[in-house]
Amino acid sequence: MKPAQDLFEVIERMPPLPDVAVQVLGIVNDPEYSLDGLVSVVRTDPTLTARILKTCNSSLYSLNREVSSVSEAVSFLGTRNLVKLVVATCTSSYFQQSGTSAYLSPKEIWRHSIACGITCQILAERSGLDEAATAFTAGILHNIGKIAISQFMSSFTPSLDALELTEDGDFLAFERSFCSMDHAVAGSLVLDRWLLPTSLRRAIRNHHDENLIVADPELTSIVHIADILCLQEGIGVFREDLSYEISPLAMQKLGMTETSLEKTRSRLQKELGRSEELIKFV
Fold first, then answer.
1. Is 115 or 240 the better-scoring residue by pLDDT?
2. Chain centre to alpha carbon of residue 113
3. Is the dihedral of CA 199, 202, 204, 206 positive or negative?
4. pLDDT band of 282, cuts 50, 70, 90
5. DSSP code of 241?
6. pLDDT for residue 160
7. How far apart are CA 6 and CA 183, in angstroms?
8. Residue 102 backbone dihedrals phi, psi, to 5 degrees
9. Please, which residues have CB within 8 angstroms of residue 221's CB and are 6 or more apart in sequence?
10. 94, 142 in Cβ contact below 8 A?
11. Which residues contact 32 (CB under 8 A, 6 or more apart)?
12. d(Cα 179, Cα 41) in Å, to the nearest integer?
């Protein structure tokens, strides 16, 4: 059986994204959505409700009184933070189950995903896009293909030397040689099965392809810049000797300068410091 066929089978076995997450993302991307509708959907999932209330009452938000209901949580947190909690809660289990290997560390890739989600949200707001919730989700899921590849590789247990097949540390090339596809393509196949929005799937698939970054909507550039910026900050770096360069075309697409990039970098560090409870999910 060919590696790509094996990987397809792994992707087919990955559990679908919980309905509550799909519904929440659909609601908040509707310009005329109601908070009551959002609360009603979240309430249908007891586990999610419990996690939201626990996190809401943690040091992450430092509220001056205990929150005891989802409707209160929405009022205190706002839609943006609620979506963060929903997406983080509903996706963390995939990272927990990926298993530690020479290819990835679940905790480190989760930390990178949270950081990337935060950065995507910052960039979306800066660019004036109405898709901040989608942007955060794209950041969280941009490496979901690595989870599938990690599960596929678990039966081969490749050594660290295998991950250094190329002197420049080209992980995309390694993935293609080992699995017949890279994690961006694998991730888009996962999202295809989950029936997530087309813009999300395109951003996941194309964020490493400079030619497609230019042709795609802004979300692809947002994911690319966020991913590389987090790696430059040492978040999710596997090898210290590698360098990471943000595409000038992606910067141009979003109208960003070195000054605005540094402001984004600074804000990420502040937001990440306030997101330790989310990082502890894995």
1. 115
2. 4
3. negative
4. confident
5. T
6. 46
7. 14
8. -65, -20
9. 213, 247, 249, 250, 251, 253, 254
10. no
11. none
12. 38
Residue type, 99: G
Q: Are 222 and 203 in contact (CB under 8 A)?
A: yes
CA distances in angstroms from 140 to 29, 45, 94, 116, listed in the order given: 17, 21, 11, 7
Distance of CA 76 to the CA centre of its chain: 24
CA 93 to CA 169: how far, in whole Å? 28
pLDDT at 58 over 90: no
Model confidence band, residue 209 (pLDDT cutoffs 50, 70, 90): very high
The domains found in the chain, sorted by start residue, are 3-14+80-279 (1.10.3210.10)
User: What are 181-200's pLDDT values in tens digits?
Assistant: 999 999 999 999 998 888 89
Q: Measure Cα distances from 210 to 134, 229, 246 in Å.
A: 21, 16, 10
Cα angle 121-123-124, degrees, rounded to a multiple of 5: 65
Write out the two tokens for 262. Answer: 């540094």
How many CB atoms are closer than 10 A to CB 240? 6
Beta carbons of 208 and 182 less than 8 angstroms apart: yes
